Amino acid sequence: MKKLISAVFVAALAIGTTLGAAQADTKEWTKVRIGVEGAYPPFSEVTPDGKLIGFDIDIANALCEEMKVECELITQDWDGIIPALNARKYDAIIASMSITDERREKVDFTIKYYNTPAKFVRKKGSGIEITEEGLKGKVVGVQRATIHDMFISEVYGGVAEVKRYGSQDEAYLDMVAGRVDLLLADSVALDGGFLQTDAGKDYEFVGPDFNDPKHFGEGAGIALRKGEADLLQMFNTAIEAIRANGTYKAIQDKYFGFDVYGS
Amino acid sequence: MDFSPIFENYPLYLDGLVTTVKLVGMSLIIGFGLAVPLAVLRTSSNPLVNGPVWAFTYFFRGTPLLVQMFLIYYGLGQLQFMIDLSQRHDFLKDAYWYALLAFTLNTGAYTTEIIRGAIMGTPYGEIEAARACGMSKLQTYRRIILPSAFRRALPAYSNEVIFMLHGSAIASVITIVDLTGAARIVNSRYFTPYEAFISAAVLYLCLTFLIVGGFRRLERHWFAHLRPREETTGRRKVGQAA
Predict the structure, then answer these.
(1) pLDDT (average), residues B97-105
(2) Which of A66, B49, B147, B198 has the fewest CB atoms below 10 angstroms from its CB?
(3) Are residues A75 and A33 in the same domain?
(4) With an 8 Å Cβ cutoff, is B175 touching chain A?
(5) B115 and B102 in contact (C-beta within 8 Å)?
(6) Which CATH number covers residue A62?
């Protein structure tokens, strides 16, 4: 009998704690910690003097201003960016993360804040074509665990050799060193982060735009821990607000000069 | 806790395990081959012989393995002649060889110092005895100094092998899918860091277990003359003599 009572007591205590935790989640948000990558130009990069700049960073700051909360930006390697969110190292991820079903199993997403297609890059004069035949035996560099990694592994994994990098910057280094034949990544990131730079002047886009939602998701969204409904609502409202009041366009024009929101 | 992604991806882990074993095994073998002559040179009293080897071991023991690998992989990749060369030779595009080079030089440097220490510890009487028997310098090294030095170096060297196994985990940062690389892929695809890395850790533990066991056997064999004589064998010998 005593055992039974203590078991009930423990169970009640456990339920009490979870309820308590759930209640803690519905707190008033005054400070939001945001995880960013910092190695994904022109969306997110660290300047030589250690400052974070880029489209993601400006969007994050604009959203925080709109939500009237204090923001702290925390850089985190891409590999661990979702586990660190769930480990409460920060409360949101603004890191050009595509909204996919696999990720939805671990995190919640806001509406998209931009959507640009993926594209391949080749060396000028290499003549590589994006077909099953053209990719045979070619080495394709992608960032590990991105939609581009999933796509190439699934669709061309049997034909091409996939080389996976921790960050997009490392993939650019190996492209210049001649160790990969093709890169697959977001077209805007490739353009601003590589093709427009001095290192990328001998390289060019090849093949079609890839944007089918099955592989490439519905665009980049902000990832939150599951169940943080009020924060999700805050972010969604803020995204719509900066879209409406011209802040979004001002940031977009600063970096791209064309529409990155997509249809 | 969900280990199903690990079981679904066990070929990835197996391939990673094979890559790790190959990478570490080859770098240890080549590194050891490099270390023996270098250790002999390192004991020379001529600074022109001793100096360069000292500089080599000082550099590779004095800098992190990760930095050495970045230097060799991304650093060399920046040089124009390496870019041209890797256009002509496909194997130069493969990260594996750069990691092998970095690991070999690193373990070579440590092993050189381990063996040098063991050579320095050779009792002078052994060398004098060899000379008195009329052995040449080469014969002295081959028959007396090196065998006894290897014996003394064995415990320290077994540590080096284990450190090398653990150090090899950083191969995964230059795109090699070794055991750690496999874990990183599974982690980043399924967002299960605990399951992904504990599985790799268990496999590393198994490898370490095999290495330790192997060295223990070797030590029993090589240090047989230092073990207290076992009772039973002693009695049998007496019996045989009678």
Answers:
(1) 96
(2) B147
(3) yes
(4) yes
(5) no
(6) 3.40.190.10
